Amino acid sequence: MSQLNIFVGTMYGGALDVAEQVKPLFEDAGYCVEIIEQPTLEMLTADTSALTLFCVSTTGNGDFPGNFVPFARELQEQSPALAALRYGIIALGDSSYDETFCGAGRALDARLEDLGATRLGERLEVDAMETFMADDAAVPWVEEWIESQQLKVA
Ligand SMILES: Cc1cc2nc3c(=O)[nH]c(=O)nc-3n(C[C@H](O)[C@H](O)[C@H](O)COP(=O)(O)O)c2cc1C
Question: Where is the Flavodoxin-like domain (predicted)?
Answer without folding.
Answer: 4-146
